[in-house]
Each structure stands twice: as structure tokens, then as C-alpha cells.
Amino acid sequence: MHKTISLFNHKGGVSKTTTTFNLGWMLAEMGHNVVMIDADPQCNLTGLVLDFDSAEDLDEFYKKHPHQNIYDALTPAFEAQPRTIESVDCVRVKSRSRLFLLPGHVNLSEYEVTLGIAQELSGSIQALRNLPGAFHFLISLIAVATKADFVLIDMSPSLGAINENLLMTSDCFLVPTAPDYFSLMAINSLSRILPKWIEWAKKAATLETLKSAAYPFPEPRLKFLGTVIQKYRPRKGQATEGFQSWINAVNEMVSNTLFPTLRKSGVTFDDKMYESAGVRADASYCLAQIPDFNTLIATSQTHKTPVFALKDQMFGHTGTVLQQDRQKRDEFRAIFAAMAEHVASLAKNA
What is the share, in percent, of the chain residues with pLDDT greater than 90? Predict the structure, then answer.
């Protein structure tokens, strides 16, 4: 049985796409079948995996592979076509077996308003009954077709209906953050927004209209995995004083505000499960702290390979500089390996 994991934060610039790609790669390296779904109309994950640099590249891909994206796969439901949603032939990620991508589409946002109306009125308007369960139905088909153990959803930075739907029909979610004031505000905001979404999902699952739809809305089973803090400057293996103060503030907001709210809404694991998975309450349920990749990010993007999977020849350096590159690579490998272990261990209980 696959587990669907959403990476969600309505604040932009917190490396959701990079985290999705690196976590997916590491889980696949560990022997799991993993599908990454690009649900962000900006299509950054699609561009990263397929080595696209412009909208023209994406447009060419859509012309050559018109049905190989999330937008087209959902058209039977959202455009009331006389055919059912079917699985999509996902893209196999080069250089990493077991890792797949469902490409995004710049037009996915066109479904935002329609889905929002459906989620408010589908209980009374029969024509809208198939929409709330459409995303979940498609993801389930893809998971079966790829024999996926994990489905990772790279979400857009918004509080729109699509994100609400994807998150509420996932098994688990993690919240990527950055050590800054805006992440602090975003976590506080999530503490107010998520309980409302959770209540909506619980109510939607009881509606007979949605239960008997062609694409039934599932029973909510969402669980909070934890947070990831990244994009800080290290010094001597630790965050600099300025960044550390923001890291502490973010962790305190999670411990004192977000987590208690999520627990009250019934979307947290029990304490023993977190403890057995190595996710500590006294560390504010932070799955990983990831420093800036700095110059290595360019090398990683050039080779479409996570920093921790770069080969020596990819660095383009020799001598002392190569030794430093190797050390950084190994540090990132340890970080992402530990995070993937935490995620896999917790998710199996969702």
C-alpha cells in the first residue's frame, strides 16, 4: 500500500521542490519505488527533472507528450468528458532507478476556481460531485501502475482549493521552512488554516453525494511528519548566530503553536511513534536541518543530481578543493539519509 506525502507551506522560497527531489531520490536509492508529482503550475520540479530552462521547452514537451501531465490527466473530471480518468505514463528519472515523475502543467491553476466551488457546493449540486475525489483517484491509479511505495507531492505556495484538496487526501505531510520572519508568520498562519481544512475534509467524507461519486472522496487519514529547516549559513558545522536565533524561533512556533493545534485536530502520531522513528519532541519535530548548498547547488542542477549523489568527476575539481567537495557531499548524504529514514519509518504508520 503506497503512502502519499505532501510537501506543503504556503510561503514560497523554502525549497519545497529541492526537498521533494532530494527526498524522492534518497527513498528510491533505499530501494523504494517513488513517484514525484509536480502540482505547482510553476513546474519547477518538471524543469529540474527534464532539464528544461524555459516555457518554450515545456511547450515543446506538451506537444510531443500531450497526455503525460497532471492537467491533461484530470480533464475527464474537470471538463466533463465522456471518459474516465486513467493512469499516466510517468517519466522515469535518469540516473535513478525506481524514481518517477508525473510532470506538472502551467494550466493546472485553471482548475482552482472550479474545484473551490465543487468543494463548497458538491453536496447540493450533482454536476460537481466527481471533482473533490478526482486528484486522489488519479494518484491512486498512478501509484498502482508504478508499484509505488511513496508518492511525493510538490505543492505550490498557496492556500487555494487544489492545495487544500491534495493535502487533505494525503496520508502524511511535512512542512519545509526557512529560518526567517516570514516562515515564522507562515507557521502561525497554518495553525489557523489547517484545522479549518481538516474539518472540511471530515465533513466531505460523510456526504453521500461524494461517497457515491465516480471518483469518491476518501476518508481523511492525514498525519503530520514534521518540519524541515533549510537555507541557512553554517560556520564550523553550526548555523551562524543570526540564523540560529531564527531556527530557534521557528522550532518554538512549531512546538508551542502548530503541533498542539494539529494534535487537537487529530492529525499527529502518538508520541511513541515519533520517538521510535527518531523524530524528537524536544527538537520540535524537525526532521532535518539543511544548510545552504552554496556553490554545489549549481553543480547539482547541471547534472540533475542531488548534491549527495554527485560523483567525483562531476565536481570538476582536484586536490584540496575536491576533498572539500567530497566532505560536503558526505555531510549532505548523512542529512538526507537520516531524513528519509524518519519519513519512511513514520509514514508506514499512517
Answer: 81
Q: Is residue 299 part of a domain?
A: no
Check the CA dihedral 148-150-155-160 and report its sign.
positive
Report phi then psi at 21, rounded to 5.
-65, -50
Q: Per-residue DSSP letters for 16-50? A: HHHHHHHHHHHHHHTT--EEEEEE-TT-HHHHHHH
Give Dmax (Cα) for the chain: 69
Instruction: State the number of CA atoms in the 13 A half-sphere of 148 facing the CB.
Output: 27
In 3D space, the residue among 153, 64, 162, 164 whose CA is nearest the CA of residue 110 turns out to be 162
Q: What is the CATH number of the domain that holds 175?
A: 3.40.50.300
**pLDDT 10s digits, 67-78:** 999 999 999 999
In a domain, 313, yes or no: no
Instruction: Indicate whether 11 belongs to any domain.
Output: yes
Q: Distance (Å, rounded) from C-alpha 117 to C-alpha 164?
A: 13
- Which strand (E) or helix (H) includes residue 290? strand 286-291
Full domain range(s) for residue 216: 3-294+337-347
Q: How far is CA 106 from the centre of its chain?
A: 18
DSSP H or E stretch at residue 101: strand 99-102
Q: Is 87 helix (H, G, I), strand (E, B) or coil?
A: coil
DSSP state for residue 79 in the 8-state scheme:
T
pTM of the prediction?
0.95
Tally of domains in the chain: 1
Long-range interactions of 329-332: CB distance < 8 A, separation 24+:
329/296, 332/290, 332/293, 332/296, 332/306, 332/307, 332/308
186-231 pLDDT, tens digit per residue, is: 999 999 999 999 999 999 999 999 999 999 999 999 999 999 998 7
DSSP 216-237: PPPPP--EEEEEEEEEE-EETT
C-alpha–C-alpha distance, residues 22 and 331, integer Å: 14
Please name the helix (run of DSSP H) or strand (run of DSSP E) that holds residue 68, with its range, or none: none
